[in-house]
Write a structure and sequence with these properties.
The chain has 102 residues and is an all-alpha fold. The chain contains seven helices and no strands.
């Protein structure tokens, strides 16, 4: 997780998200660096618009859940479980940044 934070810090400071920058930040914070994980992170972020990913994640996490609760009361038990599974999958998909960064 510290690698993701380092990448976000570099991005917020308008610096390039590269292996050297991520490594410096992690080392400065007293963490241990893993060159393979850093390289994988930087490679996975190469074609990602970080600002857009943050915006999408923020919108998905603030979506209201009240209408789903009203529907649950009207549905039988099996459909309730299905609805809960759908909500869980939607929440997992909303965690976009964490899945992008490994």
């Amino acid at each position: 997780m510290e690698l993701v934070y380092a990448a976000l810090l570099l991005h917020s400071m308008k610096k390039p998200v590269d292996e050297a920058g991520v490594k410096k930040i992690v080392e400065a914070a007293g963490g241990k660096t893993d060159a393979v994980r850093i390289k994988a992170l930087v490679g996975s972020l190469k074609d990602v618009n970080i600002d857009e990913a943050i915006k999408q994640t923020a919108i998905a996490s603030t979506a209201p859940a009240a209408p789903a609760e009203e529907k649950k009361e009207e549905k039988p038990k099996k459909e309730e479980e299905s609805e809960e599974q759908k909500e869980k999958k939607a929440e997992e998909a909303a965690g976009g940044l964490s899945s992008l960064f490994g």
